[in-house]
Specification:
single chain, 391 residues, TIM Barrel, eight-stranded parallel β-barrel, two-stranded antiparallel sheet, 15 helices, 15% strand, globular
Length: 391
């Protein structure tokens, strides 16, 4: 069985009426919770406008969480490369790699919100080319190269990093891919992993699979190899002990979450025909799992079958449910879903089945052992005592 990793992708998306300090604190509490539950990864986003995605520097959050967690790996999900000078970003990420003892990862993307780019005077149509120019430099710097390069938005002259990766293990880099092939092309060209953020509906999976093939083709042209273990799929999940309870939980905040995509994102999350009951619609079109642990297992198995296999399933974090119910959902995933895909209970099940199937033999052995003691006791009681023999 291939070991499937699990994690979370935290944009984050918080209601604009809530205390932002407490929102950021809850995001960090969530990652600490996942670390204690044995999750593998947490990716934290970067945004600068629209008021809901309130983390401007995922690096700062990772630096704090590096001290508050033990084993979970922490990534920028993603760093918007056109917003940063590539030497500065690479330098900060390499510092984080040391501060987290090798647990820091870098996600690369062009920037999701057009409003962020507008605020910085960046032409949206240039963002993907800018990302490629930056990613080219960053990967070379990570490999220890000295880079001289000049573009229309940055310049480097004999630039190099001061630090090698922690323990001389390369920093993991993943490139985001939504619908267009630009992220897939970049991943193949520069030899990074691929993170499919386009959803897990049939259309989203079809796009993700096409992009995976494109990434592999680009990798072959540039002397790189794409590994399925480095392919991450991002999906929407909320589960409870029962399907009915899960649907009751998400009534808390799913409408506000959907409205955010209506008002801010470049595409609506729920088309008009799903407005009546958005939770049911998201489930029916395969974009989300709202239900029981068994529902989550079924959905992930379908994804594995349709894609041919991937290395990590990331749950897109949301605030559909109250915070305590969200924590419970992640706990149920860890208790019941992760073991199914990681083989954690394989030998336990084999041991249980062996004992169950051998009960006739074991019971007979136990009866023989009991009878042996009974017979021995009877024999000792029937034997003449020393005092009786002396008389």
């Amino acid at each position: 069985m291939t070991h499937l990793r699990f994690g979370t992708f935290i944009p984050p998306i918080h209601p604009v009426g809530e205390n932002p300090t407490l929102c950021i604190d809850r995001d960090m509490q969530l990652v600490q919770h996942l670390d204690a539950l044995g999750y593998d990864e947490a990716w934290i986003g970067e945004h600068h406008s629209a008021g809901t995605e309130v983390i401007a520097s995922p690096e700062l959050v990772i630096a704090v969480l590096g001290d508050r967690t033990k084993r979970i790996r922490l990534g920028t999900g993603v760093s918007s490369l056109p917003y940063h000078h590539p030497l500065i970003l690479a330098d900060r990420m390499m510092q984080l790699h040391h501060m987290t003892r090798g647990r820091a990862m870098m996600g690369a993307g062009p920037g999701a919100l057009v409003s962020d780019a507008k605020a910085m005077g960046i032409v949206a149509e240039r963002q993907r080319d800018m990302m490629d120019e930056s990613l080219d430099v960053i990967m070379r710097l990570f490999r220890g190269e000295t880079v001289t390069m000049k573009t229309d938005w940055f310049a480097l002259k004999e630039a190099r990093l001061q630090l090698r990766p922690y323990a001389d293990e390369p920093m993991e880099v993943a490139t985001a891919s939504v619908v267009s092939p630009s992220g897939a092309r970049s991943a193949g060209r520069f030899g990074t992993g691929l993170m499919a953020i386009g959803g897990t509906s049939p259309d989203g999976i079809a796009a993700a699979s096409r992009n995976w093939d494109i990434a592999c083709e680009m990798a072959a042209k540039h002397g790189n190899t794409m590994a399925r273990r480095d392919w991450r799929l991002v999906g929407l999940v909320h589960i409870a002990e029962t399907r009915e309870q899960a649907f009751a939980d998400v009534r808390y905040g799913i409408d506000e979450w959907i409205q955010y995509f209506e008002d801010v994102a470049t595409h609506p999350m729920v088309p008009p025909e799903g407005k009546g009951d958005p939770a049911t619609h998201l489930v029916n079109i395969g974009r989300a799992v709202i239900g029981s642990p068994e529902d989550a297992i079924e959905q992930i198995e379908k994804l594995q079958d349709k894609t041919g296999g991937f290395g990590c399933y990331l749950m897109a974090d949301h605030n559909w449910a109250r915070f305590e119910d969200k924590l419970k959902s992640y706990e149920l995933i860890a208790r019941h879903v992760m073991p199914h895909f990681q083989g954690q209970n394989l030998q336990r099940r084999q041991s249980y089945d062996w004992v169950r199937d051998s009960q006739d033999d074991f019971k007979a052995s136990a009866r023989r052992a009991q009878q042996l003691i009974i017979d021995r006791q009877k024999g000792e009681e029937a034997a003449p005592k020393k005092s009786d023999a002396a008389e």
